Amino acid sequence: ITDIFERYQRNEKALVTTMLEMYVSGVSTRKVGQVVETLCGKNVSKSYVSSITKLLDEEVHKFQKRRIEKKIPYLMTDVIYIKVRENHRVVSKAVHIAIGIDSKGFKNILGFMISDSESEETWQSFYQSMIDRGLDNVEMVISDAHQGQVKAIQKSFTESVWQRCHVHFLRNVIDRLPKKNTQEIRNEIKELFRINDIDAARITKNKILEKYSEKYSKMCECLDQGFDDSFQYTSSKSTRYNRLKSTNLLERLNQEIRRREKVVRIFPNVESAERLIGSMLIDIDEDWI
After folding, report:
1. Does residue 37 contact residue 21 with C-beta atoms inside 8 Å?
2. pLDDT in tens, 87-122
3. Residue 246 pLDDT greater than 70, yes or no
4. Reduced 3-state DSSP string for the chain
């Protein structure tokens, strides 16, 4: 295939681009080689395709280091775990991801970071990297209630409101109910979480506590403790819409990463994980733009 590349430089660029697009779209390096072999009649090894994918590294690095010029009042963050080979072992790595939403509702992927675990230190490092790139004046941060993450938010965004993910909190509340004979209370809780007015929601919450505090004490305690954090999005007209009350936008993004990860299963190293996940996020961000 080298001879083909030497004779047709334009075709070489087109073929390399096609190989990279297949790789980012979810085709394994082995299958990419098989497709090229079918089209060109020449054998292309998995290792050769892997070497071609390293051309993506520079673009991913630029994506991670680019300035954040846009005003981002709303920040949404989450983490997913992937498997990576390291020192002859398979270990878990935490992929921190952030989405920014502007005042008109348009969204961008602000960044991602792979670390050994999810902790207050890693979250603070991730947030600081975005602040160093120009992120400021964040009004609200939406996330799950991971203790280290919440502490890092409070330290990194001292003037911001923390919105606890509505969907995760609803699950946490319902999980504290028995599975049988609780349909009535489940329906009442779900109805509470549909209310977008803080005063009406608080009245409904208090009625639930009064009605069920003795029968379902653990559920009521969980609901009461997390209520205010989960309904922060109702505090002003500018934040009172569904997109800001949960991390569902990030959940859908995570599903795309999971879809591609299933093909790889175990990344050979952190660099390959950054290359593939970063390339996917660049493509998605460009589609959003």
Report:
1. no
2. 889 999 999 999 999 988 899 999 999 999 999 999
3. yes
4. CHHHHHHCHHHHHHHHHHHHHHHHHCCCHHHHHHHHHHHHCCCCCHHHHHHHHHHHHHHHHHHHHCCCCCCCCEEEEEEEEEEEEECCEEEEEEEEEEEEECCCCCEEEEEEEEECCCCHHHHHHHHHHHHHCCCCCCCEEEECCCHHHHHHHHHHCCCCEEEECHHHHHHHHHCCCCCCCCHHHHHHHHHHCCCCCHHHHHHHHHHHHHHHCCCCHHHHHHHHHHHHHHCHHHHCHHHCCHHHCCCHHHHHHHHHHHHHHHHHCCECCHHHHHHHHHHHHHHHHHHHC
Q: How far apart are CA 29 and CA 48, in angstroms?
A: 9
Q: Residue 135: name the closest of 111, 118, 155, 163 by CA.
A: 111
Q: Would you mind telling me the total number of residues written for the chain in this entry?
A: 289
Phi first, then psi: what are they for 193, rounded to 5°? -75, -5
Report how far apart, in Å, the C-alpha atoms of 158 and of each of 175, 216, 228, 231, 278 are. 32, 36, 18, 19, 29
- Tell me how far the alpha carbon of residue 26 is from its chain's centroid: 18
Q: Provide the pLDDT for residue 265.
A: 83
- Does the pLDDT at position 59 exceed 80? yes
Cβ neighbors of 97 (< 8 A, separation 6 or more) are: 77, 78, 79, 80, 109, 111, 112, 250, 253, 254, 281
pLDDT in tens, 156-180: 999 999 999 999 999 999 999 999 9
> pTM higher than 0.90, yes or no?
no
